[in-house]
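Bug #2210: token dump truncated for UPF0210 protein NCTC13652_01497?
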Amino acid sequence: MSSEPMDTATTKNILETIHMIEDERLDIRTVTMGISLLDCIDSDGEVARRKIYDRITTRARDLVQTCQGIETELGIPIINKRITVTPISLIAAASGEHDYVPFARTLDAAAKEVGVDFLGGFTALVDKGRTHSDKVLVDSIPQALAETDYVCSSVNIGSSRAGINMSAVADMGRAIKRSAELTADAGGLGAAKLVVFANAVGDNPFMAGGFHGVGEADCCVSVGVSGPGVIARALKKVPGGSFGTVAETIKKAAFKVTRMGQLVGTMAAARLGVPFGIVDLSLAPTPAVGDSVARILEEMGLERVGTHGTTAALFLLNDAVKKGGMMACSHVGGLSGSFIPVSEDIGMIEAAGLGAISLDKLEAMTAICSVGLDMIALPGSTSAETLSAIIADEAAIGVMNHKTTAVRLIPVPGKEVGEEAEFGGLLGRAPIMATSRFGSDEFIARGGHIPAPIHAFRN
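Reproduced locally. Full output below:
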């Protein structure tokens, strides 16, 4: 039995892909199954939780095995297999219960049963106002994250249409502080599983902020790509090139990375018998050498990420990645902006340790990326009011600019500026960063709502 030889172009593409996987750390960061729990709502909390467990374990039964099969077939690593669910504040409301920790335990048990790495959706959407159920969920977050291993939580406190719910912002500062305190023996790890958003999106496959939006399909599969090493290596081939050359080089590399993401996503969806959702173009770094977004920016000519010019370099990177990704795949969504988590990016870790980058510079970079203050280790003595004020600043950037912004802040118990927190795995390590020595307590105590900007009403 004979077979036709592959043409030169096909052989070249295969060899390029192998090279990207072996030498440039190309991987699929996550394949995430989104599952609607709307039909699990019940006035009896026990019944609702049983429905939730059964639905997740039925829908996602073959998720991990399917992804492992694709890994073997294509030879590309899929680092995480995850699940997102409908915000639990919506699902649990009918139960009338005053503590949602039991719902978190159910989600954790389901995640363990199907073998995924994380499950997101212990979530409330409170940008315009809060229901009783929203308040119960927010109050339950610290204990829920302390008692579970795989559950991730998120709260949307602002939007361009509604403004910023400053009362909720104050609550979230306290929730972060308490989450860190309850997991002090793990370096405040509970806070690392909690994201506070403005303009949150319902098709985000990344953790800890992923949840399955109410406008999504009953069940779908989405993909989050990686590939900082691919882009950094491509830029090494154009030393001294103009910014036009840099942009074109990034676009071409992003096209290849996104194509791989789309292929994995469509294969997984077909084999699981559910619709394909989106590819999230966000460049997701890790603490490993050669897998850093910061190194891409430094490859453009910055001595260290955080110096003057960093925001402009990040703007070029994000825009070029999106242009290349949009050409490769018509189903792009999620956050689709470079992640710059301090603890999860070796270049960011080094820059923070040297004092090259500060909270102020990271806040400025938020104008370009979706999660500008991500995995920020702060002194354990940081007050809840200061945490809330940092959240408010990030939300203001997102609300005014019609973009998603978010924070993951970790006030590490017992640590102060000059020390380092170790989280392990993909979460990495982070120097403890300084906050302002001046307080914001009276500002946060006002409560109420910061109104939406006038350009919110475009229709």
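Output looks complete on our side. Residues 359 and 435 are 7 Å apart (CA to CA). Marking as cannot-reproduce; reopen if the truncation happens again.
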